[in-house]
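Re-running the complex after MR caught last week's input typo. The corrected sequence lines follow. Everything else is unchanged.
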Amino acid sequence: MSDESTTYIAPEPKFGYPAGPKLDQQIKARHRRGQFWYVLLGASLIVSILALIALLYTIVNDAFGLAAVEYKNDPTRLVVEQQEKVMLADRDTVSSEDDRELAAGIMNDPYAIGFFGYAYYQQSSDNLTLLAVDGITPDAGNVEDGTYPLARPLFLYSDARVLENNQAANVFINYYLTHVNEEISDVGYFPLSAGRISQAQQTWKQANALDLPAGQWAAINPDGVGGSLSIAGSSTVYPLTQRMLERIKADGFVGDTSDESVGSTAGYRAFCVDGAADIAAGSRPMNQNEFASCRKIGRLPLEFAVGTDALAIVVSAQNDFLTAVTADELRLIFTTAQKWSDVNPNWPDQPIKRFIPGTDSGTLDFFVETVFPIALDELPQPTLVSILADNVSPGLGRRMESEQRFFADQLVFFSQEQWAEACDGATPYAGCTLPPRAKDSVLQLLNENVTEPNIVAVWKLVPSLLNRAAIEQEALEKYPAASLQFTSWVSTAFLRSPQSSTPELAGVRTAVLGSLWVVAFTALVSFPLGVGAAIYLEEYATDNRLNRLIQTNISNLAGVPSIIYGMLGLAVFVRALEVITSGTAFGAVAAGATANGRTILSASLTLALLILPIIIISGQEALRSVPNSLRQGGMALGATQWQTIWSHVLPSALPGILTGTILSISRALGETAPLVVVGASTFITTDPTGPFAKFTTLPVQIYQWTSRPQPEFQNLAAAAIVVLLILLLSLNATAVLLRNRYARRAA
Amino acid sequence: MTLNSYAQNKHLAVEADKMSVYYGGFRAVKEVSLQIPQKAITALIGPSGCGKSTVLRSFNRMNDLVPTARVEGAIHYHGNNIYAPNVDPVEIRRRIGMVFQKPNPFSKSIYENVAWGARINGYKGNMDELVEASLRQAALWDEVKDKLAESGFSLSGGQQQRLCIARTIAVKPEIILMDEPTSALDPVATLKIEDLIQELKENYTIIIVTHNMQQAARASDFTAFFNMDADRAGYLVEFNETNEIFTNPKHELTEQYITGRFG
Amino acid sequence: MTRESFARELKILDTKILRLGSAVEEGIMKSAVALKTRDLRTSREMIDLDEWVNQQRIEIMMGCFTLIATQQPTGPDMRSLAATLEIAGELERIHDYVKGIGKISLQLDTAVLPTAIVSLIPDMAGIAADMLRQAVEAFTANDATAARRIPLQDDAVDRLYSQISYDLALIVTAGQATYEQANLMQWAVHNLERAADRVINICEWVVYKAVGKYVEMDSGYVAETAVIP
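Corrected-run output:
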């Protein structure tokens, strides 16, 4: 330490204290000691924060993530099929896979309406009127950018190994990607942007292992190329492919070609399942199931976008009342409406003649998927019921209906006579008196009996986010039939559903309700008892040996392991006081109640005992912090001791008392061991109905789920922990709010 | 000590007769006999631990709140011993109010601070008038009349102490005990309280404990000087008119104390 | 207004000074007139009044002491109490002069004195009494300016004093009075002159009370500050 760098305020040594450089050293040494502790304290804080983060990480990691779900019946398909069925069922509806037939049918009838690929509209545009949908008439701009609601991409699919082995197919796709934009407008579709074409070309280059820079294209001259080429698929893509075939043949291609217009779905089936087609043409992207089927036969589909189609909604040129429709009107026109005037009173009172493509056509699927809602839970209850009716056996359906009927005024599975007989009989069905099922209930039945989701694999949140591509690959290989979904295990369904042995269907409603019941009764019992005891001990008890003994024991009780309270609860409340805790003494054994003592009441009393010492101690603490001057001030005015306590001491101590109480109730909410001993039910699906009901609580539920071997239950446990944490946090937030409110009032 | 000439002309408000106070086995105050004149200010002074506060608290049985406290001898109030077994301390405290060292308003509104004591004591008259009159007497009305609904804690220290005086006045006591009422206040607030006490002696008997000798000199009519003897029990050394005590003390200890030569 | 009781006590002391002051002022005039008119009864009354004056002074003194002991006066309050103490003393001593004149009057008994001289004595007493009245008024009004102006009037007293002394010498030489009588007269006049001087002391304390500075107001001061408006 040099003299230049240090300024000494008092340089001379005085009175035996260090001075000069020594003073400097001494002060620095003292600071160092302080810093040591500062760092130590900071480190411990960091460690605890890290521990918290690790805890949250584990929970969140398990509560969310990708899941591979196999459906017995794909819900999207169910919806689409249902809608298509409704549309096709009408006797005024003409359905054909041949769009030309449809166009011809519409032309001659002023009350006809239909839809098909834009190309067919162009072929007969003189005799047809193109309708604007939601105010947008299709043209190149709004189709390419997707603002026209019924625009869709057109694809070719093939496989790298197919292209390698089948030169004709390889050259044809190369030729297609080279010249499609020159022909497409003429065929009646909309050309792709240069970017999307070059993306498709990139795919082809990769399949041929050509290492060309982006933007550079290797067009192959088809002159003299031969072989056999089989194309199957969408009737929409068909005219375009036909045009390309004509052109490639004109350019010297000599191969045998077959091109079948069978619809996208059939085309994909031919490519992925049978392996008969070399190229599949589609008017919708291949879905995951189809993709998975391809993998099964060793094909990895390559996607080549070749154009965009807009679905044309057309009426006859003779039609004089329709130039535009909305999506809502479309839904009505193609489903329930019988006459034009049903849709819009300004339209003529004439039956609607519908001309629609058949079910093999991608066009119909596309129309349904675009115009109608496709999620099951977006459908109205009657539609759900009819899906259910189509997909379950009559026996199962009758059982469902007997438990609770679907409609108030109509029977689905029973005949009127059967129903009336059963309801008038000795053992009427529950459904005879219950109100009809709500939509949720029907959805649940669909879930359990029709779609039957089966989670075949789960991934944690972090890999799901960071490593999605690898997971998709893995899922395709291992679980080809499953669809990969991002799953939040915490969901409204999870909160609403009762316990179930199927992880996909299990929920926490029973447990949450049980927890709330138990905690409410616990608070009801322990708060007045605890606060009363605290007031007695703090305000009235004299300092004698007995009171000291009581005080010491209360402090000790606060440290007794909770399981011991469980033993106590079992012995006293469940066994000895069974008459009371089971409710038999009050004659209150209603539905859902049990005749033994393992009830909400027993659990609440046990937990109340468990947290009583904590409430007493925190209450005493709060009362002790009330300044004595307040008591004296009250007494000096001639108030009695109780008046003083009631008017001044308690209001001042209330924030502290409430905080202590709510924190201890939080503890009760999180307790497992004593409840397991007292006898929380391990598996219960009925909601608790009162103090004498069987019950389970969230922590018990979590404990049971974590001990199950299936990995999905770990996710459920994590989700239940999230629910428990939210409950706890809201309870603590209430405590903070209450405390602030009372503290502000006291200030 | 016998009744002096000055006090003979005045009526007595309360009288301690050979009163001793014990805390457990410890005798804190030894055989104090003190005659407090009516409608005058009597100051109790003395060194720390001389038992002056204990004596003050004995007058309205506030010592009962200390579990181990015990009083021997008697305090005569209207001819009755307030320590007689059939006397309810609640009644004594309603007639002999008390103001404390630190202002201790209730955590209620200003209005409620004053009204509460009256209400619990069964006051049947017009509460608004009582509150206003009490606050006026405590020289606080003008400062708080527009914010009666605000918390008592929103006031300054001196205002809080006057609020405590107002709530004491509201129950119409005969005697007001003040235990170092200005020790937590600044000089200006202190002087205001002293003036207020001067006004109050028109209607109330006031007994004030103060560690501030000058305050006793300034603000009181009579002064009692207490001291602590060898076994740390407090006893009364001298009781006289304040002017006499401060210009011509009779007892050597008093003289030493007031001239600052004590101890 | 804080410390109201203290302010009240100070006011009472002021009133006492005022009462004592006017009694002494009246004494100066009465004793001089009694000397002139040979009113022995009044002269005797003036002598007897001294006991009351002394008592008043002690009362004022004790009042000051009590306030000092109990009220811890500071600043203007302290100056006021100091001035009150001193002024009460000055007034008591002025009355001693009055008492002296009364005694001289009794000693002269029935002697007949030359009219020219005896009529000048009340004139002198008049000026001194007037100065005292003004001084006491300045005290109660706490008026330093007025107090500063009062000593200027002392010259007239001094002039009359010189003239009367000179006249007395002439009278003795002319045999119009005995040497003893002239000597007594000389004492009486001297008493009046001293009384006026003590009024100046009072003024000094009034100034001190009002502005907190003690200024000697002897003849030199008078010359220097004669221009005070």
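None of the earlier attempt is carried over here. Residues 153 and 308 of chain A are 4 Å apart (CA to CA). Chain A has 31 helices and 14 strands.
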